[in-house]
Design a protein that fits this description.
InterPro entries: Kinase-like_dom_sf. A hairpin with a 6-residue loop joins strand 26 (about 515) and strand 27 (about 520-525). The protein is built from 23 helices and 30 strands. It is of the alpha+beta class.
């Protein structure tokens, strides 16, 4: 017994209030008790509270938060939930709640509360289920383990509630093509220590969950796990006695269980998986107003003259006000682009938060001013080496952005479908015209007309290159000319305007995201192409620029070790290369596709809203335009040019491209 341990008394405290509960403690309390003499030596306390009866569960979290503080000795609660905060629980959007704070021992104490009947149903089901946890904390990027001991990362698209809290999506069991892992609550349930369980509630839930894991695992692999603790996040910290005790318990209870009828599949050990907390909670934003004048006059404009790959197509800098305050300003190149920024902002503000509200406009100078944001664009962070901390921080923000886009897409498409927003009255952004204009205009010739290369003693100009069939790593693709012609057909504005339309930001790649370094403190900037348009064009530039970052900005990054061979064989250009996405690029691609595009299609199709049968053609052609006509690839060295050209052409077959890189 640890001196000062009050956890075994919690059950009686809740019972005295009229609640029948079972309590389990996780973390070091459960598996390292011999290491502590005094309770206050334990840094964090992680509890799972199972409450019998839904009405009792709701009553506890609504009316007894002060008693929870007293019982857990919490002196600094993270939050006291209001009735509005708790709406998702009573409305069925959330199934559990996370309550936390600092107690009188200065320990961080966190307790997840769930109703017994719901937990029993989830753990009894044959298929993996999901527990949606209402929480003030918003965590989305996790390091996890599978039942065979493999490490992987998990990205979760959580949902913000109307009152600004978060619904954390917590599956009980991840099924990853025959490999299994536990969610947060399931991990605590299996690895934790019961501190109050008079009616064997915890014991029963453990058996249900172990049985579920065993049934699924045996169905795929034909036998039982050799070590159940391999799928627990803290397994490396477990003493050998704990591992043996747990395995003996699991195997003795369910060693002869029958497997499910599923066919065994070869484990696919990918590094990153995306889950979505559901259901989606529709959220609208009050359209923001634009100020024409500021109280203070501008006393000085300080233009930023340095340019880079992420700078916008405008003059910009720091405006110093008469009171000494600094604000950001930009001067658009013409009235057309100025109006695009204004109309795009006002339209997008109805579906997106985190927009930067203009505080001053001067139509005569095509000038717009914004409050100063103390941060930097997220793309610039990738010019430095990727560290574990940078990866975690970057992905936490990316998963929040995915929630923003998914919600905006679903709500705006549904508004059009229901007639809330009439399609003929939409503000259609300029993004369709931008893509088509680049394909039809002279940008291709301006960028590449002077490009030549020599291989096998043969000198080839770009005009000849345009007509060559391209073979990349043994796969045959259309010529550049044919790919451009196809893109002109796929991206014809009047054609796209009759297909699926959503409200999007149009240009929300990482060069247009400002972040302070805190994953939850970011802003979208540059609204010139915001408005209603195709979701596939909306996502294309973010996919291309961010996921192909290492070669698209190869001229800005330290030298990388890529291997490429290029040769000409008659009318064929043959390229062999070894370029693959790094982990961060792969994570970004999966988040944008499996966190936004694919769930959008599933949701809207389920509502009877067409999501375009030819969407892969649209996205592939948009990727071509992004990769070939945004930056002048001929300014790169020959390796950089051909790596990017190969990547652009491969992306036109988008489904294959996606599968190859994830």
């Amino acid at each position: 017994m640890i001196n000062g341990d009050f956890l075994p008394t919690l059950g009686k405290e809740f019972s005295d209030l009229g609640y029948e509960v079972a309590i389990i403690a996780g973390g070091s309390y459960s598996y390292k008790q011999d290491a502590f003499e005094s309770f206050d030596e334990i840094r964090d306390i992680d509890l799972l509270l199972v409450v019998k009866g839904k009405e009792k569960f709701l009553d506890l979290v609504k009316n007894r938060q002060g008693d929870i503080d007293r019982i857990l000795k919490i002196t600094k609660p993270e939050i006291h939930f209001s009735e509005a905060d708790l709406g998702p629980l009573s409305q069925g959007y959330a199934d559990a709640i996370r309550y936390s704070g600092i107690n009188e021992y200065e320990q961080k104490i966190s307790i997840k509360m769930i109703e017994q009947g719901y937990a029993e149903r989830i753990f009894s089901e044959n298929e993996p289920g999901r527990i949606n946890v209402l929480s003030k904390k918003d965590k989305r990027f996790y390091a996890k383990k599978t039942i065979d001991g493999s490490n992987f990362y998990l990205g979760v698209i959580n949902q913000k509630t109307p009152s600004g809290l978060t619904i954390l999506g917590d599956p009980d069991l991840f099924e990853l093509n025959g490999i299994y892992s536990l969610g947060v609550i399931a991990d605590v349930l299996l690895s934790g220590k019961a501190v109050h369980d008079e009616k064997d509630i915890i014991g029963n839930l453990k058996k249900l969950l172990i049985k579920k894991v065993a049934r699924k695992y045996k169905g795929h692999n034909g036998n039982m796990p050799d070590d159940w603790t391999k799928m627990m996040v803290r397994r490396e910290r477990f003493p050998a006695e704990f591992i043996k005790e747990f395995n003996d318990y699991a195997n003795s209870a369910f060693g002869d269980i029958e497997g499910s009828d599923e066919k065994s599949k070869r484990p696919d050990k990918k590094e990153y998986y995306v889950q979505i907390a559901s259901p989606i909670i529709p959220k609208t934003h009050s359209p923001l107003r634009i100020a024409k004048k500021m109280d203070e006059e501008i006393s000085e404009l300080r233009y930023i003259t340095t340019s880079g790959p992420f700078s916008s197509n405008s003059k910009y800098g720091v405006a110093v006000l008469s009171n000494g305050e600094n604000v950001f300003f930009k001067e658009m190149l013409n009235e057309f682009r100025f109006r695009g920024e204004i109309y795009g902002f006002t339209t997008a503000s109805a579906y997106f938060g985190r927009l930067q509200e203009p505080i001053f406009t001067d139509p005569g100078k095509n000038m717009i001013a914004y409050k100063w944001f103390d941060g930097d664009i997220t793309a610039r962070k990738r010019l430095d080496p990727v560290t574990d901390d940078m990866m975690k921080n970057y992905m936490e923000t990316e998963l929040r952005k995915a929630e923003d886009s998914l919600n905006a897409y679903l709500l705006s498409a549904t508004d059009i479908h229901k007639g809330v927003v009439k399609k003929e009255e939409l503000y259609t952004s300029r993004i369709h015209d931008l893509f088509y204009g680049r394909l039809m205009g002279d940008r291709l010739s301006k960028f590449y007309s002077d490009f030549t290369f020599e291989t096998n003693g043969i000198k080839v100009g770009f005009e000849e290159l345009m007509g060559m069939t391209i073979v990349i790593n043994g796969v045959t693709y259309r010529s550049i000319r044919d790919s451009v012609d196809k893109a002109r057909s796929d991206l014809f504005p009047e054609y796209l305007n009759e297909k699926l339309m959503i409200c999007g930001l149009g240009d929300a790649h990482s060069g247009n995201i400002m972040s302070s370094g805190n994953p939850d403190d970011y802003l979208y900037i540059d609204y010139e192409f915001s408005g209603f348009h195709s979701p596939y064009l909306d996502m294309a530039k973010a996919i291309y620029n961010d996921c192909s970052f290492n070669i698209f900005y190869v001229d800005k990054l330290p030298k990388q070790d890529f291997h490429i061979e290029v040769k000409v064989d008659g009318d064929r250009l043959i390229i062999e290369h070894d370029y693959k996405f790094d982990s961060l690029s792969k994570f970004l691609l999966k988040t944008k596709m499996e966190g936004v595009v694919l769930p959008m299609r599933d949701f809207l199709n389920g509502k009877g809203i067409s999501t375009d049968d030819d969407w892969l053609d649209t996205l592939g052609s948009a990727m071509l335009c992004c990769g070939l006509l945004t930056r002048n690839l001929s300014e790169f060295d020959e390796t950089g040019f051909f790596l990017n050209l190969a990547n652009v052409i491969e992306a036109t077959k988008f489904e294959t491209y996606y599968n190859n890189h994830i």
